Amino acid sequence: MRKSITCLCIALVMCSLSPLFANVGLPAIFNSHMILQQKAEVVIWGWGKAQEPVSVTTSWNQQTVKTETNPNGQWRVTVNTPAAGGPYSITVQGYNTIKLEDVLIGEVWLVSGQSNMEWSARAGIDNAEEAVRGANHPNIRFFNVQHRTADAPQLDLGGQWVPSTPETMIDFSAIAYFFGRELHQELDVPIGLINSSWGGTPAEVWVAPEVTASDPGLAEAAKKIAPMEWAPHEPGKTYHAMLAPLIPYRIAGVLWYQGETNTAAPQSYARLFPALINRWRSEWGYDFPFYYAQIAPFKYGRPLEGVLLRDAQRKALSVPGTGMVVTSDIGNINDIHPRNKQDVGKRFANLALNKTYGRKNLPFSGPLYREMKTEGSKVRLYFDHAENGLVMKGKQLTHFEIAGEDQQFVPAKARVDGKTLVVSAPGVKKPVAVRFAWSNTAEPNLFNKEGLPASSFRTDDWPIPLQ
Description:
CATH superfamily of the largest domain: SGNH hydrolase
Radius of gyration: 26 Å
CATH class of the largest domain: Alpha Beta
Mean pLDDT: 95
Distance between the termini: 90 Å
Structural class: alpha/beta
Number of domains: 3
CATH architecture of the largest domain: 3-Layer(aba) Sandwich
């Protein structure tokens, strides 16, 4: 009898202690001061003891959503967020309790890429002191993903949400900050910015490795990315550690500034980049806006590798829901890290404000080549985003070339004719192709009336061997 009582007591003690060994938890992306996407179904997820009851209570509606951890100790719930506002709190109750305070509801954007996206005010930007001094914006919040790599998708990552202050802004992505500041001022809602960038990384490291492995051309191009001392280069490495743990945190869209490292194999980027966009959207489960910067002019080692990469980026505009910021007028051919990050951020903001938030009065793109028509010995070029006309900055248009059926390009003259351009060269009687700003370092002077620069382009699809 005494033995039975002893066993029962031990069992009761063990049952009472079992919750102490459990620890309902959340990934780092969920912490106090975070921002959740407004007016959306937002997934919140975490871990706990298998079969542990979990409830999530949100203060904006005082509703509680209940679930139970699965056999792998994982749980997730979906909550509906209101229109922008706050601060609110979120309480997660398992065998223990977690309370998240100062939670805001607003617009959340993920920014990613390599060094030009990662570049901070501390690293050196134009008017850095003024920008840092004015960075007190408590309703703009930053989440800076720590540099990590992995060989398989991870469940968590390093980082925390912090309000924008001079102390936090100085080490955050400058482009993302300027973008967020413009959105905050225009929309008057909280802005959340998640920065997952790593200088020197090729696009291959930011997408699941099977994307490149399943395409022989992409797999071969990945082999051409030389190892570097300052960044990973193997497919999937940062995707696994710095992106996968964020999925499916609800975002309004993505900003991307990357491509300089992929100039080693620029022609394959035309397939790789759309594949990355589509894969990210597939994994998040919806087609969010994906806006990106075209790389700036720079003295790359091989002729044409930079402009071929820029052309691949231009062609990616065929992917629905994308937009491109052209930087040819605010780059630095001697510095792969142009210091004018404020204009890049503002152009990104105007792109998002126009295409995502309906501010149709804000111009968001310079002229983009649409089609050509031959008129005897001349070629007439037609452009999108030239509704109010084309302009040149200077005495004459520069960086045009024209070719006949011999495929030999020669310098050409171009003139503005309202919304079109007329291009010709004395020695080319039957032109068949035009190229514009077709070099690594071209800084052309063609703009639309809104003051935004035209992208480089070519009308031909002739093979171009890299030297």
